[in-house]
Amino acid sequence: MKEGLQPGVCAEFEVSVTPEMYPVFEGNMIHPVMSTVSMIYYMELAGRKVILPYLEDHEEGCGFAVDIKHVGPAVSGQTVRFRAVCREVTDKRVVCEVTADTAQNRVGLGTFTQAIFHKEEARRKFAAQAE
Fold first, then answer.
1. How far apart, in whole angstroms, are the C-alpha atoms of residue 99 and residue 120?
2. How many degrees, rounded to 5, is the angle at CA 80 between CA 76 and CA 83?
3. The pTM is what?
4. Pick from 116, 112, 88: nearest CA to 98
5. In sequence order, what are the residues at sequence separation of 6 or more whose Cβ sits closer than 8 angstroms to the Cβ of residue 130?
6. Nearest Cα to 100, choosing from 24, 9, 17, 29?
7. What is the rounded CA–CA span in Å between residue 54 and residue 59?
8. Which residues lie closer than 8 Å to 33 by C-beta, 6 or more apart?
9. DSSP 3-state percent helix, strand, coil across the chain (nearest 5)
10. In terms of CB atoms within 10 Å, which end of the chain has fewer, N or C?
11. Is residue 3 packed enough to be buried (19+ CB in 10 Å), middle (13-18) or exposed (0-12)?
């Protein structure tokens, strides 16, 4: 990892809730709100944005663990702010506290841990798995 990634580094962005984000199971839309799956996707994206400026050319990161609670709704058309704050950095892991909020309420919170690895080693492992 490049110098500078330390606790307190953060990334944030906003998205508007759209129908593609609704919870749908077996073709049935459940309610016109952001699904847990969509919320976690954006929380992971926020965490990824924390590490991207610090990855060396030979490095990559991937999701290692998520511990998330979906605590409130984000309804269709609402803006949701996603934020990831680095809380811990080691040679092989980066832990971020992640949150999702609308102007009215907290939508989700938790942690997202990313594993940092050498791209070539991962490529070899993935190729071995495909055999």
1. 32
2. 160
3. 0.93
4. 112
5. none
6. 17
7. 9
8. 17, 22, 23, 73, 74, 75, 76
9. 25, 45, 30
10. C
11. exposed
* CB 96, CB 86: distance < 8 Å: yes
Cβ-contact 96, 34 below 8 angstroms: no
pLDDT in tens, 84-116: 999 999 989 999 999 999 999 999 999 999 999
pLDDT in tens, 21-31: 999 999 999 99
Residue type, 87: R
Token pair, residue 101, equals: 């909020």
What is the full DSSP assignment across 20-66?
GGS-EETTEE--SB--HHHHHHHHHHHHHHHHGGG--TTEEEEEEEE
- The total of other beta-carbon atoms located within 10 Å of residue 38's CB is 20
Strand partners of residue 114: 63, 94
